[in-house]
């Protein structure tokens, strides 16, 4: 009997949190189901060659590749098309907001089962007011657990419609590489100390935090500092302090090689916490206060419970001083030992089973005539609310867009995908082995969105 296909869709985000969770769930289900990952996040370029999963990149609204009024329909049509191509009956969407196009896919195909994977630990922003509507528009809400859930007092904490699971993580104790093997993979000296720093770059305040954190590592004898991005500003000028041996490494998933590091400095995002702490890497968390994720609450929990150190993200001198504590071997040993008491983050396995059970259910979709009308009305309210929210909090939209016919391809390596995803040319990505019917349908979708023909 052929394994069923389950689509794991994700929104964009500040980091790789949505994609990391989707990848962890996909890995957990591959024995009994075939995962297909689709995402508007550019980080999806890393996944196909690293995992072997079928993936498709969908350009997000902020790319500006089509009129904004057409994007929700475009996203809906892309989801329905790939569900029909792969025979999937379940689409799980991991994102803070279930896009109107995701919700509308059930209006197009009532047999689809829609699942919203909704992380907790929200800050109290305007999005909390549409939570009651969003939750009614999907067939199931799943909340991936959070080590710091005891400090969650945000708008999702008091709701009861979600199935709560254990935390989700790509780190697996029995599969992660040993210290020496991981260092060989990363090209690091086996005998010198090594620290991983993941704070992001770009905006001036983020660069300042990175500089402050790196300054706390100066003076650590023979240290190797590993970054995932070049420490340069938008003009190409380096803001890293002198005297550090800095290497830039691209490796996915980093969870497999975390034992290479003696310590880390990281933003307090979901996947950072749920990978570094189970790997028992002594860590200083420097929160990113943008977006919906309440990283400060998560960082405070990690600090209060003794699993990590929290730096004050608003105080550059405190960041430097807190990071400098990692040079103390006794502090590192204490943090390492405390992390042994954390439960295993097996939420990926739990969610994979929930999604498989949805596929296996034989009951008909709940969408009768009345339910369809209710769904349509709520969808209209949600879409209008999203437009209002983005008017108040607009995205930064890419400025340079080449209006020529899009490039089409089924590339599946990071080296090939990154330039296409980041480029100014519109790019239509196809899963490997796409059928002629699927390509024909994708041409129609592209024609409607761009006003240009698909591939010849």
Q: Which range best describes the helical content: under 10%, 10-25%, 25-40%, 40-55%, 55-70% or over 70%? A: 25-40%
Order of helices and strands: EHEHEHEHEHEEHEHEEEHEHEHHHHEHEH
Largest sheet descriptor: 7 strands, parallel
Q: Which blocks of ≥5 consecutive residues have pLDDT under 50?
A: 362-370
How far the N terminus sits from the C terminus, by CA atoms, comes to: 36 Å
- Average pLDDT works out at 89
Description:
- With 456 residues, the chain is an alpha/beta fold.
- Helices cover 37% and strands 16% of the residues.
- The chain contains 15 helices and 15 strands.
- The protein is globular and about 60 Å long.
- The two termini are 36 Å apart.
- It comes from Candidatus Planktophila versatilis.
- This is Glycosyltransferase.
Write the layout of secondary structure elements.
Blueprint: E1 5-10, H1 17-29, E2 34-39, H2 47-51, E3 54-57, H3 68-86, E4 90-94, H4 100-108, E5 113-117, H5 131-136, E6 140-145, E7 162-167, H6 179-186, E8 194-198, H7 204-215, E9 224-227, E10 245-248, E11 263-266, H8 270-276, E12 283-286, H9 295-304, E13 309-311, H10 316-324, H11 329-338, H12 347-360, H13 369-392, E14 402-409, H14 414-422, E15 425-429, H15 436-450
Parallel strand pairs: 1-2, 1-4, 2-3, 4-5, 5-6, 6-7, 8-9, 8-11, 9-10, 11-12, 12-13, 14-15
């Amino acid at each position: 009997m052929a394994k069923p296909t389950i689509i794991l869709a994700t929104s964009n985000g500040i980091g790789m949190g949505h994609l990391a969770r989707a990848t962890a769930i996909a890995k957990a289900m591959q024995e009994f189901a075939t995962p297909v990952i689709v995402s508007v996040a550019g980080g999806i370029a890393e996944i196909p060659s690293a995992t072997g999963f079928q993936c498709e990149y969908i350009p997000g609204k902020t790319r500006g590749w089509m009129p904004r009024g057409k994007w929700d329909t475009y996203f809906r049509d892309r989801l329905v098309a790939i569900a029909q191509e792969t025979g999937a009956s379940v689409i799980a969407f991991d994102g803070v907001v279930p896009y109107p196009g995701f919700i509308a896919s059930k209006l197009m195909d009532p047999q689809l089962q829609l699942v919203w994977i909704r992380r907790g630990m929200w800050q109290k922003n305007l999005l909390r007011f549409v939570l009651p509507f969003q939750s009614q528009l999907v067939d199931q809400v799943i909340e991936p657990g959070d080590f710091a859930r005891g400090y969650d007092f945000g708008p999702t904490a008091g709701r009861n419609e979600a199935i709560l699971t254990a935390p989700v993580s790509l780190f697996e104790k029995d599969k992660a590489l040993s210290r020496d093997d991981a260092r060989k993979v990363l090209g690091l000296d086996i005998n010198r100390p090594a620290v991983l720093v993941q704070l992001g770059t770009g905006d001036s305040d983020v660069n300042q935090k990175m500089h402050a954190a790196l300054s706390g590592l100066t003076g650590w004898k023979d240290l190797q500092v590993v970054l995932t991005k070049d420490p340069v500003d938008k003009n190409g000028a380096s803001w890293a302090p002198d005297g550090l041996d800095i290497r830039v490494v691209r490796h996915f998933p980093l969870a497999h090689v975390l034992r290479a590091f003696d310590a880390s400095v990281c933003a307090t995002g979901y996947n950072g916490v749920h990978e570094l702490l189970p790997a028992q890497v002594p860590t200083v968390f420097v929160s990113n206060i943008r977006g919906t994720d309440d990283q400060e609450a998560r960082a405070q929990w990690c600090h209060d419970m003794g699993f990590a150190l929290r730096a004050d993200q608003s105080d550059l001198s405190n960041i430097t001083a807190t990071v400098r504590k990692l040079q103390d071997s006794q502090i590192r040993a204490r943090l390492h030992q405390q992390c042994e008491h954390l439960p295993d983050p097996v939420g990926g396995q739990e969610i994979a089973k929930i999604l498989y059970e949805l596929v296996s259910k034989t009951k008909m979709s709940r969408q009768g005539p009345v339910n369809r009308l209710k769904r349509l009305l709520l969808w209209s309210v949600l879409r209008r609310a999203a437009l209002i929210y983005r008017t108040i909090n607009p995205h930064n939209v890419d400025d340079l867009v080449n209006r020529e016919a899009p490039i089409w391809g089924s590339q599946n390596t990071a080296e090939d995908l990154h330039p296409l995803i980041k480029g100014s040319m519109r790019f239509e990505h196809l899963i490997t082995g796409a059928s002629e019917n699927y390509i024909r349908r994708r041409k129609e979708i592209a024609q409607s969105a761009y006003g240009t023909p698909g591939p010849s």
